[in-house]
Amino acid sequence: MDNPTITTGRSGNHLSLLQKLAISMGHVFNDLCAAFWFTYLLIYMHFVNQFNSNTSGTLMLVGQVADGLATPFVGIECDRKLDWFFCKYGRRKCWHLIGTLCVFLSFPFLFNQCIGCENSPEHSQIIYYAAFITIFQFGWAAVQISHLSLIPASTPHSSERIELNSYRYAFTVFANITVYILMWLLLKTNDEQSGSQISPSDASTFRNVAFIIIGMGTVFTLIFHAGTRERNTDNDGEVMDQEQQQQQQVATLSTDLRDECRVTVWHGWLKEIRFYKVALLYMGTRLTINLTQVYIPNYLQESLYLPKKSVAYIPLVTYTSGFLSSFLMKYINQTLGKKVTYLIGAILSLGACTWIFFGTDENFKQWGIFVVSVIIGASNSIMLITSLGITNDLIGKNTASGSFVFGAMSFVDKVSNGIAVWVIEHFKPCATFSCICCDYYYRDILTFVCGGATALAIASLAIMTTDKKKKRPIVVNEYRTATVVAAAATIITPDSTLLSNHHENIINKDELEDEQTPLLNHSSNSICH
């Protein structure tokens, strides 16, 4: 539940079911684009556009860095009170609309051949695609941040906020499954005409799916804007009330606790060793998850030589497995604790990586790959949800500083993933076309790079278990606004909402040993008024 001292004085009617559904649809466009972007960008650039691996990796790096830089910028600007006429439409809805327009105008160009420059050198086409990628990532960040901050601003009732996050995640699942089914159907239809492997003749398939995504996303966005009314919270008095309430909360801590804790500003986290340990754990987790999502399609095409439609139904199996596994997280965490739960997920991940390395025969191609996909989906879900919970334990009672902590984690996540993809593509032996020496390159990437990232996370977890139990500093936040918290808490993929849905009210062994702390949605909502 939200802190009652924060919600005191807030009044308003309950949202109707139609209003809840309309608000929850505000991120569907982003979810559709994100699933397509991460899973198929490298496949499209390399197999359809015939770009070399260096170019494909560079474009992914540009997107990740642009997203990482846009997130805090949009978060701060989205909270700035402006007197512009169109801002009377609603500050967050206005930014949501701006972001949607950027995505709408840029996304189709990412999965279409360079208009008027298809025969130009690759370095010229890089500039073309990089420009649209930057616009797309800026718009994507604007939609994500404004929508996350709009949810707690839409209702003062904690139960309704939880319900909105649940609906939002349901639409995320719908969006991801829709993308993979669309690709499966269209690639299957085109399979008879252009062969079993993805090639330039499949350009129309990627283009058509991109246009379908644009059409579907536009419909859901229109429903969101028509059915959502943004509450007016743009007054300085409210901000001052929040600051006074935060000071009162610090003042009401027991004398012993205040004596053992030191009050500092947000950059006090930089002096905390545990902050870097958790950041290392989180980075290893995100590298494992994102690199498997990015490189499984390449592995299916260049290592296993499976039919082109496999790049649709294998990710579908992985995503569905992760979704179903997330429902078990509350029980597992309550029973075993976060650290043991994370270790189980990491061991499953290492097992899948090992199986991929040895799985080269026909039996593996026929059924083994499906089992591995299920294991990967389950392990990714366990590791992601638990790592977010561990990050919240780091924040503890310093909920006002959650924006900085999650912002730092998110930035490191996006930049490290972009650099990792660039390095992997840069060192690929055959940068232009597949050859015998590259048959097992992506198999080795999934085995050693993803497995290495998991091992890095396990090492960080092991170091964390040696920490002495001690009080963490209370960090007085310098940020004042709701959207920065939501922006900082965003994760590059839609899975961030899992925490709100499946970690609700989890009390486990770790929390009993350390301090029981509010979860991500609680810490965000407590200041998002």
Structural account:
The protein is an all-alpha fold. It has a single domain (8-234, 267-525), classed as Growth Hormone, Chain: A (Up-down Bundle). It has helices at 4-7, 17-24, 28-48, 53-78, 91-110, 122-154, 158-194, 203-227, 236-251, 255-260, 273-302, 310-326, 329-336, 338-358, 362-395, 402-426, 441-465, 482-488, 498-502, 509-513, 520-525; strands spanning 263-264, 474-475. A two-stranded parallel ribbon has the order 1-2. It is globular and about 60 Å long. The two termini are 14 Å apart. The model is unreliable at 1-11, 234-244, 250-264, 471-508 and 511-529 (pLDDT under 50). It comes from Dermatophagoides farinae (American house dust mite). This is Major facilitator superfamily-like protein. Pfam families: MFS_2 (PF13347). Keywords: Membrane, Transmembrane, Transmembrane helix. InterPro entries: MFS_2, MFS_trans_sf.
